[in-house]
Fold this protein.
Amino acid sequence: MDSFLSRYRNLTVLLILIVAQLILLGYQVKTNQDIRLVRVWSVSAITPLARALESTRFHTFGVFEDYFVLLGIRENNRKLKDEVGRLKMQNQFLQTQLADADRGRALVAFQAQSPSKTLAARVIANGTGSNSAAVFIDRGSNSGVESGMAVVTPEGIVGKVIAAYPSASLVLLVTDPTFAAGVMSQKNHVGGTLKGQGHGNCIVDYIQNEQKLDVGEWFYTSGYDRVFPRGFPVGQVSVARAGRNGKEVYLTPSGLQGGVEEVLVVLEGVHQIIPENAPPSPVVHMMAPLPESPAGPADPTANELNTQADQIREAYKKIGQVENHEYGVSNSIPNYNLKLQQPQTAAAPKTATAPPTDASTAAPPRPQPGPSAPAAAPLPQAAQPVTTTIKTPSPAPKKPPAAEAPKKLRAPLLQTDPADADPSELESARPAAPKRPGEEKPQ
């Protein structure tokens, strides 16, 4: 064997290499990898050594590199902060300019629609009084502004000019305690005097308790004060209640709600008609209502939004139908305490059972006429039988009527009128009287 291997050594090595190559080729085909196995083995062998070298480099030379890099981070951070602050200020300025442009467009549109001659002005400072509510505007007597002129915005009145200087004017706001103006309600046309209170709300004075005024009703200038033209909006009623000397009406001024920055000075006022409808509110986007169920809205209980409020509304609708009351039209007040009849379900019939009778409380049977006695005629009401009952004091157990002794009962006493009945029949029908002791029947 040794001589065979030694003789064919080269051939044997070649065969072993060919077989090994075929095996490795089959393995590679089976694993479906395009990378050669020699490359895989070499990379797998070198990877741990490369990882160790990189870790050593990072913890030695990398520390010094990061240190020199971080030296400029503080300066870069400061520059970025300054840039962010500058951009914020620029953004705020642009937003303010955009808001001013929007208010300016609104003022221009209001000037074009208003028949009164107005002058646009800007608020530049507040008043110097400690308790006063006044502002300075950048228009004065050089622009035609005079003391006593009205100051308004598209949303409502703001105040009036109390002092006109060459290049500025002092405006007294509607919230000042010394301010007063004539106003009139929109719906009920109730007149009063608007007065400031020193804070956000104003009061409308000189309104009687008998006058009708609703919460949410709008007030407009009446023009009677000769300062504000008639028809400018003033505000909306927030509180309306009866008081001691008159109705207490509190109003929220509409001209001061969005802040006072740009105003209009009325140079020549023109009276207008108080509109019948309230000023339009800002447009609010609303989604479409929920789709109705396939069964239809006839059955309110089938709705998924059947809340307690919906049940109360349905109950009030039924009460209105019963009372013949139409909500929003009739002046009568329905009876909300009315109890509506609920639909009754058919109950199962019950078997009537006679209550147990007691011999002591049961009435005795009426005596039947004998075979020789004719049928008696119906007795009058005075001749109805009278039943007498005897109650036993002892709590003895109750017995059926057949077991009771006949001596404990008395026969019914029949009382008849002698003119209506035969004496012989009454004598035969009357029971025999009990014997007295010592009395014997004669032979």
